[in-house]
């Protein structure tokens, strides 16, 4: 699709921005609704441009970004604290608006902002580093405002990373942390994000490959992987899960009267549900996440924690050893019929069936969960399991 997906007059002024940025444009990655247009035919209309900035690279650039933005005629959006800018497009009722985000690890202490350069900030964005790493260049061709033909390269985050960002945004809006005054707007925005997720997943030709890429992007940040995969499961596992409820509201609010019969509408929800199930890990992955959570929380399940550590100590296995997953208590796992526990061999067999990406995510999730156990004075006797002493070495 390339540059044809960006509408005029915004495309002309996007090219103007890219030309002024020069080599620094490679450190601007398109996300949000504009990125959707590169991956989904006939995607929803949007005029704003959301960029995730490669902060480390831009801080070393001699180009002063705020000077470039001001020389192009942009002004700071009121109350945005130098991370949103806009300008009127000449001879048009349209405006050009750009919004800057940056990876959350660069955020100020106690603040949501990231310092990019002097007088230029960005909003902290969870998963921003993944979105930058998982991006591709596209050629954008058109004209500059003076009519001169011009083409440039623009980086766009990949479909699986866009899904990740949309999952986080969906959860944020659905929780309505902004309070009751924003509840209606947040509900609408949640519907937009759910619809975007369904559209991206539906548009991918090989969904099994998409699942591998979706999970694989979290090898660099497995803790975030557990968070995002848990959000996906919570919002899209069943056709009556919250993600589909707000998706239904979005479709009803945006469809032409009489477009769908009730039966056809139900069929659309079922179609979307089928695509989303192909994206989600199987339930056994989430069973292992829940088992790890239970077996590393003394406040909620001290008996399971002690049973788990007893097994590790007996077999001289450190809790951060990948083999530790084999010793999760079987009572954490219910049979498919819900009657009784799975036995040890069945649990280990199911662990082997998980994908390499899933096992890696689980292993790092285990490491992050057990840190507080190692500091507990009540567990000093577990010298091998928690400290790796007596000949066992942590992995």
Plain-language structure description:
With 395 residues, this protein is an alpha/beta fold. The chain folds into 3 domains: 2-156, 2-Layer Sandwich (Beta Polymerase, domain 2); 162-280, no CATH class; 285-387, no CATH class. 49% of the residues lie in helices and 14% in strands. It is built from 16 helices and 9 strands. Strands 1, 2, 3, 4, 5, 6, 7, 8 and 9 form a 9-stranded mixed beta sheet that branches.
Structure at a glance:
The protein is of the alpha/beta class and 395 residues long. Helices cover 49% and strands 14% of the residues. It contains 16 helices and nine strands.
What would the keywords be for this entry?
single chain; 395 residues; alpha/beta; Beta Polymerase, domain 2; globular; nine-stranded mixed sheet; disordered C terminus
In DSSP terms (H or I, runs of 4 or more residues), the helix count works out at 16
Q: What do we call the CATH topology of the largest domain? A: Beta Polymerase, domain 2
Q: Quick one: how many beta strands?
A: 9
Q: Segments where pLDDT lies below 50 for 5+ residues?
A: 390-395
Structural class by sheet pairing and helices? alpha/beta
Question: Could you outline the blueprint of secondary structure elements for this entry?
Answer:
Blueprint: H1 10-21, E1 28-31, H2 32-37, E2 49-53, H3 55-59, H4 65-71, E3 75-76, E4 84-88, E5 95-103, E6 113-117, E7 120-125, H5 128-133, E8 135-143, E9 149-157, H6 159-175, H7 183-203, H8 207-216, H9 222-236, H10 242-254, H11 262-279, H12 283-294, H13 298-314, H14 344-353, H15 356-374, H16 383-387
């Amino acid at each position: 699709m390339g540059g044809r997906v960006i509408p005029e007059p915004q495309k002309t002024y996007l090219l103007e921005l890219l030309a002024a940025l020069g080599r620094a444009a490679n450190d601007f990655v398109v996300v949000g609704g504009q990125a959707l247009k590169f991956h989904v035919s006939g995607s929803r209309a949007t005029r704003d441009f959301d960029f995730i900035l490669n902060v480390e690279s831009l801080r070393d650039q001699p180009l002063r970004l705020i000077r470039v933005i001001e020389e192009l005629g942009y002004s700071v959006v009121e109350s945005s604290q130098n991370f949103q800018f806009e300008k009127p497009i000449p001879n048009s009722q349209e405006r050009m608006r750009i919004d800057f985000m940056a990876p959350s690890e660069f955020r100020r202490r106690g603040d949501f902002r990231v310092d990019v350069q002097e007088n230029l900030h960005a909003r902290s964005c969870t998963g921003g580093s993944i979105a930058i790493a998982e991006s591709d260049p596209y050629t954008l061709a058109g004209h500059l405002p003076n009519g001169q033909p011009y083409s440039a390269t623009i980086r766009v985050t990949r479909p699986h990373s866009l899904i990740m960002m949309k999952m986080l945004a969906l959860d944020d809006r659905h929780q309505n942390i902004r309070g009751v005054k924003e509840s209606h707007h947040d509900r609408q925005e949640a519907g937009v994000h759910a619809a975007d997720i369904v559209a991206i997943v539906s548009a991918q030709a090989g969904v099994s490959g998409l699942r591998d890429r979706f999970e694989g992007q979290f090898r660099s940040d497995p803790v975030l992987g557990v968070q995002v995969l848990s959000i996906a499961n919570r919002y899209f596992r069943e056709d009556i899960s919250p993600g589909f409820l707000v998706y239904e509201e979005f479709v009803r609010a945006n469809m032409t009267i009489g477009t769908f019969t009730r039966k056809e509408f139900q069929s659309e929800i079922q179609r979307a549900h089928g695509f989303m199930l192909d994206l989600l890990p199987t339930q056994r992955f989430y069973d292992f996440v829940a088992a790890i959570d239970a077996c590393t929380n003394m406040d909620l399940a001290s008996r399971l924690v002690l049973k788990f550590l007893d097994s590790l100590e007996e077999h001289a296995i450190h809790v951060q050893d990948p083999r530790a997953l084999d010793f999760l208590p079987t009572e954490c796992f219910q049979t498919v019929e819900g009657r009784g526990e799975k036995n040890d061999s069945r649990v280990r067999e199911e662990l082997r069936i998980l994908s390499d990406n899933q096992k890696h995510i689980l292993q790092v999730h285990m490491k992050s969960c057990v840190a507080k156990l190692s500091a507990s004075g009540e567990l000093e006797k577990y010298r091998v399991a928690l400290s790796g002493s007596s000949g066992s070495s942590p992995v």
